[in-house]
Amino acid sequence: MNIGEAASASGVSAKMIRHYEGVGLLPPASRTSTGYRQYNDKDVGRLLFIRHSRDLGFSLEQIGELLDLWQNRGRSSRQVKALAQAHIAELGEKLEELQEMRGALESLVHCCNGDDRPDCPIIESLASEAAVRSRATTTHAPQKESPAKRRQFAR
């Protein structure tokens, strides 16, 4: 099947199929005499595996590890479970960051009248944060700030 058919069968766009091939998650496709990529059912199965892994938020590197484990029938499920547990921990950290960002935004929205006047605490907070970061980068190397610090600054 050609790349369009493989895309339809897997739910992965042709562009992403080429990308996955480029980064090594999918082996290089065989080519027709005219140079068109050709895929088989095994390739589509691999694309479905990649798509389901992406749907769960695994990184490309993690998906590479999962693919290796999937192909290795001698693996222990312990390895797969450990990888999934590490991903759960990462998702928990991201969830905390998102909740902190939401809290900061809710606080700013609460302070904004949302009327016809030009004064807006949301814009003022964003502008003052930009000014602080601008001064910090001219005096020393930039430092990554936690969402909690950003929220504290927004208040």
Automatic annotation (TrEMBL):
Residue stretches making up the HTH merR-type domain: 1-69
Record region (Disordered): 131-155
Cellular component annotations (GO), alphabetically ordered: cytoplasm
PANTHER family referenced in this protein's UniProt entry, alphabetically: HEAVY METAL-DEPENDENT TRANSCRIPTIONAL REGULATOR HI_0293-RELATED (PTHR30204:SF94), REDOX-CYCLING DRUG-SENSING TRANSCRIPTIONAL ACTIVATOR SOXR (PTHR30204)
Protein name in the entry: Cu(I)-responsive transcriptional regulator
Gene Ontology terms, MF aspect: copper ion binding; DNA binding; DNA-binding transcription factor activity
Keyword annotations from UniProtKB, A to Z: Coiled coil, Cytoplasm, DNA-binding, Transcription, Transcription regulation
Keyword RNA-binding: no
Record GO biological process: positive regulation of DNA-templated transcription
Location, primary (coarse class): cytoplasm
Subcellular location per the Swiss-Prot or TrEMBL entry: Cytoplasm
Coiled coil: 81-108
The species this protein was found in: Trinickia violacea
Alphabetized SMART domains for the sequence: HTH_MERR
